[in-house]
Structure formats: C-alpha cells, structure tokens
C-alpha cells in the first residue's frame, strides 16, 4: 500500500471497525486474542505506523512515562529498570529514561517532563522526596519509589540486615564491618541496614566498623577493598552486590583467599551474585512484585479507573552461597 497507512486502512483491510483496531493496539479494552493477532499481522503487512501527535490529541495520552534514576552502573538499578519496563509494557506504556546523579539535574529533568511529553513520572532519585517531586512536576502524576503514601510499599531493610548479621554471628564472626548504601539513605535518614547494624553491634558489645564506597558501584567496592582488608574485620556486609563484587575482584588480584580471610554478604541478589567466585551470599529482593506494585500505583494516579493495589511489605530473604563461612573454620 502506498502513502500513509491509517487505522481506517487497517480496519477496511480486515473488515472490522476502527475502534476495534484502536483497542487492539492500545490494549485499553479487551479484544479477543484472535482478533488482536489479526490486527497485529495486518499492521505489519500494511506498514501502519501510529501518528503520535494524533494519538495525543485524540486520547490526551502520550503512552509514555518518565523514569528518573540516579545511576545505571549498579546491578540492582539495571535489574529494577528491566522489571519496571515489563510492568509498564503490560499497560502498553513505554519508559522515557532520565539519568542523573546530581539533584539539580534531576529537578531540571522533572521540569521538562511536566511539559506534557509524559503521562506520569516515576521518581527513584534518593535525594528527591515525594512532595518536592510532585511540586516540580506540576499537574503530572508522580510516584516516588518506596516513598509514596497511597498503598505504600515498605521494604523492611532493617529486618533483612538483622538476618544477615545473625548468619554471621552464627558462623562465629564478631569483627564485622559494613559498607552502607547511599541509595537507601533517604529523607535525611541513614541506610536502615546501617541503623540495624549499629543496634545489633551495640547489643553484642562489639565495636562498629563502618567503611564507605561512594557511588555504590563495583569500582567503589574495589577502591575501598584494601582499606577493608587491612582492618581486623573477618566479615563484611556490603551495601549492594556490585560493591561486594568489587571486593571480591580486588581480593583475587591480591591473592587473598575468600571466604577464608573474610566472609562477604551483599544485597539485592542481582545477576552478578552468581557469577562472582565465590558465589555471593546476599539478601534477595523480589523485584518483579516490587516493580508491579509501584507501576500499578502510578497507573492509578494517571487513571483513577485503574485499580489501586493493596499495600505491600517486603522482607529481604537471605540467600546463602559460598562467600560466607565459619570463622577460623574454613570449608
């Protein structure tokens, strides 16, 4: 077919109404799998391409959401964004990604998103709170990850940290270090894993050993490794799997035996956890239900006809692998 192919052309080709084709493409109304399949084949055969401007004028929707994230250099963020993408796709929505590690740039991106280019915004920037984000976005609905008030998502990081520490205590470790996460430090409060660590160490009467890995990347873990290995610590609870992997990489370079010299626990159970050597003991976050819940809250904010999910509480699960072992009793 020559020229610009319209929805009407696709409908005439199939002998169905324009609304049937439109609903099959948008997913906004239930269409039988057979009809949807026929529409998609015809779209491909005829070379139909939706007119974005016409769609916005007709539906007052762009089919896009803006997502603000501070870094793509951590395995957790990458995996979480993949799950957000899957969840949005189930609503026929696509993500427009804005990345920045500077709060000023994050504010600027939010102001640009409010221009009408997106239907809603998902803010994951740790430094940008929910009220500030909504004010910057104007009338565009905003959900701030893990800090929205309607149908809240609660991840009990402190409970997960206590589980990880109990595992190390059971293995006989007492000189335990921590590398807290910057991304979990929100609204002026420290990483809840750090708070739980300090409380548990105080209960045991054991000094704290706190190390920093700015940025929370694999490289940051690599750079703090020598300082950590020079300490008396026999175990470390790392802020995320990337930092833990950086420690392991540096240990391999230096010929330091793990976990004999030091047990290492990560956080998030990201894909990198099973490719390190030794494989990483870590706290698992079930990202799929976390992402689905967050996306559904935003979809309700965009369209109140969409159901609001029930509040969700997640406790990270300890996954024990080869990077943790008994103190003075290596396996």
Describe this protein with a few key phrases.
331 residues; alpha/beta; 434 Repressor (Amino-terminal Domain); Rossmann fold; four-stranded parallel sheet; 12 helices; 15% strand; elongated
Written description of the protein model:
With 331 residues, the protein is of the alpha/beta class. It folds into three domains: 7-58, Orthogonal Bundle (434 Repressor (Amino-terminal Domain)), CATH 1.10.260; 61-150 and 287-307, Rossmann fold (3-Layer(aba) Sandwich); 155-286, 3-Layer(aba) Sandwich (Rossmann fold). It is 43% helix and 15% strand. The protein contains twelve helices and twelve strands. It has helices spanning 7-14, 18-26, 33-46, 52-59, 75-89, 103-113, 130-137, 157-170, 192-204, 218-229, 241-254, 287-302, and strands spanning 64-69, 94-99, 120-123, 142-144, 153-155, 176-179, 209-210, 235-238, 263-268, 281-284, 312-314, 317-319. The strands form three sheets. It has a six-stranded mixed beta sheet, sandwiched between helices. A four-stranded parallel beta sheet has the order 2-1-3-4, sandwiched between helices. A two-stranded parallel sheet has the order 5-11. α5 links the parallel β1 and β2. α5 (75-89) crosses α12 (287-302) and α10 crosses α11. The longest helix has 16 residues, at 287-302. The chain is elongated, with a radius of gyration of 24 Å. It starts with 6 loop residues before the first helix and ends in a 12-residue tail after the last strand. The model has no long low-confidence stretch (mean pLDDT 89).
């Amino acid at each position: 077919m020559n020229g610009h192919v319209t929805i009407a052309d696709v409908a005439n080709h199939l002998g169905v109404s324009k609304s049937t084709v439109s609903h099959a493409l948008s997913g906004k109304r239930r269409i039988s799998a057979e009809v949807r399949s026929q529409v998609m084949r015809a779209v491909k055969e005829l070379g139909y391409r939706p007119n974005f401007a016409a769609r916005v004028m007709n539906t007052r929707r762009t089919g896009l959401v803006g997502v603000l994230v501070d870094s793509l250099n951590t395995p957790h963020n990458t995996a979480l964004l993949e799950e957000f993408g899957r969840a949005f796709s189930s609503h026929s929505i696509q993500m427009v990604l804005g990345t920045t590690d500077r709060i000023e740039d994050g504010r600027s991106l939010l102001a640009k998103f409010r221009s009408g280019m997106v239907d809603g915004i998902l803010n994951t920037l740790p430094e940008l709170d929910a009220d500030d984000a909504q004010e910057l976005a104007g009338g565009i609905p905003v959900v701030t990850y893990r800090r929205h008030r309607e149908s809240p998502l609660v991840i009990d990081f402190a409970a997960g940290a206590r589980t990880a520490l109990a595992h190390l205590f059971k293995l006989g470790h007492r000189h335990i270090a921590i590398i807290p996460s910057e991304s979990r430090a929100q609204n002026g409060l420290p990483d809840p894993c750090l708070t739980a660590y300090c409380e548990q160490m105080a209960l045991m009467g054991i000094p704290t050993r706190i190390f920093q890995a700015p940025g929370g990347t694999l490289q940051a873990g690599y750079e703090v490794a020598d300082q950590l290995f020079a300490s008396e610590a026999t175990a470390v609870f790392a802020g995320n799997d990337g930092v833990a992997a950086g420690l392991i990489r540096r240990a391999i370079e230096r010929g330091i035996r793990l976990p004999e010299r030091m047990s290492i626990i990560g956080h998030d159970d990201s894909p990198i956890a099973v490719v390190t050597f030794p494989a990483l003991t870590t706290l698992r976050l079930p990202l799929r239900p976390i992402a689905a819940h967050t996306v559904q809250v935003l979809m309700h904010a965009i369209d109140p006809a969409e159901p609001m999910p029930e509040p969700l509480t997640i406790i990270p699960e300890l996954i024990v692998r080869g990077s943790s072992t008994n103190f003075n009793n290596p396996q």
